[in-house]
Specification:
elongated; binds guanosine-5'-triphosphate; 43% helix; binds magnesium ion; two-stranded antiparallel ribbon; 11 strands; Four Helix Bundle (Hemerythrin (Met), subunit A); nine-stranded mixed β-sheet; alpha/beta; single chain; 361 residues; Rossmann fold
Amino acid sequence: MAIWNPFGKKKNPSEQVSAETVDASPIVELELEQQEAPSAPLAATPPVAAQPEKVGMFGRFRQALKKTVQVLNTDIRDLVGKEGRLVDDTFLDELFTYLVKTDMGNRPAAKIRDEIKQKFRGRKVHMSDLMDSARTTIREIMKQDQAGINFAASGPTVIMVVGVNGSGKTTSIAKLTHRFAAQGKSVVLGAGDTFRAAAVEQLTIWSERLGAKIVTGRQGSDPASVAYKAAEAAKNENADICIVDTAGRLQTQTNLMDELSRIKRVISKVIPDAPHEVLLVLDATAGQNAISQAKGFSAAAECTGIVLAKLDGTAKGGVVIPIRQEFNLPVKFIGLGETSDAFAEFSVDAYVDALLNTDES
Ligand SMILES: Nc1nc2c(ncn2[C@@H]2O[C@H](COP(=O)(O)OP(=O)(O)OP(=O)(O)O)[C@@H](O)[C@H]2O)c(=O)[nH]1
Ligand SMILES: [Mg+2]
C-alpha cells in the first residue's frame, strides 16, 4: 500500500514521509532541542489518511456555533414560548438584548427587531417566524461573492498570514496545509515569525506532521528574508502553495505593520503577483475587539480575506455578521478546534442556517 504523500510522489511503505527543512540563514543552524517549549500546545492530529468521513457542512457549523445557538435557541425560545408571544415594546426590547448578546452588532439586531415589529406588532409571533425573518435579514447583510483561495494563474500561490498575538495564525496555517495536502497540493511553509524561537519550532512540528517543506531562519533574523527564501523555494521546486507565517502584532504598532508591507514587497520580488492572499486571522472569542483588529489590519496590510479562528469556543459567534457588514473582506475559513482538520471553508448559507435553525437540538 502506498503511503499518502502530499508532494504527489508515491512512496514504498519502508520509506519515511519526512519534511525537508531549508534554513534561510545558513550561518547558524536552528538547535531545536535547546529552544523553549512552544507557547501553544500542539493538539494531536490523526494522520491525514485516517481522517473521519467528512461531516456535513451544516453539522460542522452547528457544532461550532453550539454556544451561540444556545443563546438564541434557549433564551429567545423561552422569550417567545411554545404558544408564541405578543409583539409589544417589552418583547421587542428583550429580543434586541438577546440578539446583541451573540455579538451580531447593534445594527443587525435592530434590523431584525424592526422587521419583526413591522410584520407582527399587536399580533403573536412564533419562533419559526422570528427565525425566518432573521435568516433573511442576516443573509442579506452577509452576502459575499468570494470564498476559498484566490489561486495564482500559474506557479505557486503565496499566502501570507497575519494577525494579533495568539489569534490562531500558526494553527490556521497547519489547517490550510492539511487541506491543501489532502487535495494533493504541495506546500512550502515560511516560518516568518522569527521573533520567538518557539514559533519556529511550533511550525516545524506541524510541517513534520503534515509532510510539508519548511523554510526557517534564526531567531531575530529578518522575517522578510525568510519569506523571500520560502517563495523562492516554492518557485524553484514548482510547489503549488507557499504559506508564510508572521509574528503576532497589534494593529496599532505602526513599525510592525510597516514590516508586513515590506514582507509583501519582498515576496513580490520573487513572484510578481504574490502574495495572492493576505489572510487576517481573527479570534472569534475576542468579540468586538476582533472588529477593531480587522479595521487596523485590513487597511495597513491590505488583507484579502479573513480566517475566523476559535468559532468553536465562543457564545459570540454572531461576530461574523458585523465583520461582514463593516468590511469589504470575505470571510474565507473558520477554525472549529485545535486539530489541523478542525477547519471549514466559510459559507454564508451554512452559517446562517446553523445559527438560526429552529430545531430544539
Ligand atoms: N478551540 C480552538 N482553538 C484554537 C483554534 N485555532 C487556534 N487555537 C488555539 O489558540 C492558541 C493560539 O494559536 P496559535 O496558532 O499559536 O496562534 P498564533 O496567532 O500563531 O499565536 P502567536 O504566534 O503567538 O501570535 C493555541 O492554543 C491553539 O491551539 C480554533 O479554531 N479553535
Ligand atoms: Mg504563531
